[in-house]
Input
Amino acid sequence: MRELWLIALLATAPAFAADEDAAALELADKTATQPERARDWHLFAEAAWSGVALRAIDATQQVERLSLGVSFDNVFSPDWRFVFADRFDAWWQQSPSRQYTVNTLQEAYLSWQPQPNAIADLGRINTRYGVAYAYNPTDYFRTDAVRATVSADPAVQRENRLGTVAARGQALWNGGSVTALYSPRLADRPNDIAFDPDFGATNNTDRWLVAGSQRLSDQFSPQWLVFGTAGEPPQVGLNATALLNDATVLALEWSGGRSDSLIVQALSLPADTAFRSRLAASLTITTADKLSLTAEYHYNGAALDREHWDGLGRTSPASYARYRSYAASVQDPPTRHRVFLRAFWQDALVSHFDLTSYAFIDAVDHSRQFWVEARYHWTRLDLALQWQHNEGSPLSQYGALPAKSIVQGLARYFF
Amino acid sequence: MGWLGTLVLVLTGPAVAATTAQEILAASDAIRNPDRPFGLTVALVEYREGKQTDSTTLAVYSKSDPASGQFRSLIRFVAPARDANKLMLKSGNDLWFFDPASKASIRLSPQQRLLGQAANGDVVTVNLAKDYKAELVAEEDMQDGERQTRRCYKLALAAVSPDVTYHHIEMWIAVASDRPVKARFFSESDRLLKTAYYRRYQLQLGVERPTEMVIIDGLNPQWVTVMRYSDFAWRDVSEQWLQRDYLPRFKPE
Output
């Protein structure tokens, strides 16, 4: 009897397939698509509500935020293009009550492309290098670039930052290119005036960069960089990626050169110039279920080692605070070794629902930061719920952060 | 296959038959793919259980690589607004993604998908004859995407290199016109990954080409993706643009 059922099932299988195909084709017949046209401008608004559990006092602080982001990218003649991006953030904080606003003029530059293989730009340019996810030693223009921190997520911090005012030229050839950039000194120091373009943050010294890449094989094209700051030795950088198999990407990012240590720079101590390296190495594996897992190792040869990091907080709280503040402004880890783990599950359980989580683990003081996000998106609206938790000993990298944990809900609308 | 087809196969032997099958496949590639650099718009509409769940519009520029004969593509997301201006560069398995918000150029593995059900390889032009060895297994009547009975060659395609999206493919190509009609895509473990119908043939860039592909998921046939092509145009895609460092610069016309 069972065999008979099996035979009957096998005999009807092609018919089922034909029915399914017919149903799919009928669906396609009814599809009325009108492809959308590309727009030069894009606008979003984001509202966020946060509850911050403070470490120092046993209390929860509520913070509300409203953000507006606009971008405009227009080719106004065959060879000329204008690029503009700006973001405005306003916060309302309770107990103590405080309201503050920050505008970030991210980009505003003219681009001229007289030939398909030659481009020149002038203006505020958000130039970013690096192939790692959570630490980019070759992202040389990251110093003081973040005016408004709206999330600990490295991806969000990259999105909300100032470009540097620069003249940039790029030449391209088959399989390779070279870019040269000069960023002049325009102001003395950063300021926190809400609507200031803040040239003092991005252009407080003369800087230059040359970056080149060349395809060495079908799947390998490393990028070399040389970066210079007025009065300091040049730094050399390398970005390389490799596909290990159809699901695994290896990325390596390195920067090295003679420089003072971070503590000397932060506290203006006598020079201790030596060759120092910074490194990020990452491995990303993606499964067939759209789950991507990233493991990344960060090394900062200019940061404090275990002995000096342990001693700094105990011996001089003021120096400790200045060192941490300086490391944050140059977007460098304050300790030598760190591990970053990230899981991203696209269309988790249901379509349009994404789950992301990451962990920073300081390998010197063993403090940790955990972050989890659940996000659902419709065509124009995103709703997300985030949870962040910092733990570790009182003077550790993450254990010393003012917030023990943060819960944030946000809604973003794309116009 | 009809008795005549069998007789031809027996008389000509497998080597000649294989060459013929490869030529049929190459001819059908030429119908799908213009022979010069070109651009087009792809509108993807996804359905699950008969309900529309997603809609994406992409601008695609493609150019064949003189060395490999395979296409390389620059893809810009036009809609939805959340993804607008994101870019993808696909040159074989060398896959880069650029997000204008973070200015990050990220290397992707072929397994990482940017679209819903469609594989990255589905939205770009592929010369199957370069990546697969074809064998003629039958000549048969079948229903095409317009529900017309059409005489087709049934080809079995086996990947010649491991770095392709699909391990093997069954493909039906119209005997009279070399038009691709239907394809079934399989994994290495012989699991049906998807079925595709090529339909709505229109005169585009000098040749009657399919302007719609209906993709049916192999595991769940209730998951359907309709890919509709429009705005075909010859485009001057410079060789120098097909690299990671040009991604932040690329803006389609």
Summary: The two ends of chain B are 47 Å apart (CA to CA). The longest strand of chain B covers residues 51-64. The first helix of chain B runs from residue 3 to 32. Chain B touches chain A through 69 residues (CB under 8 Å).
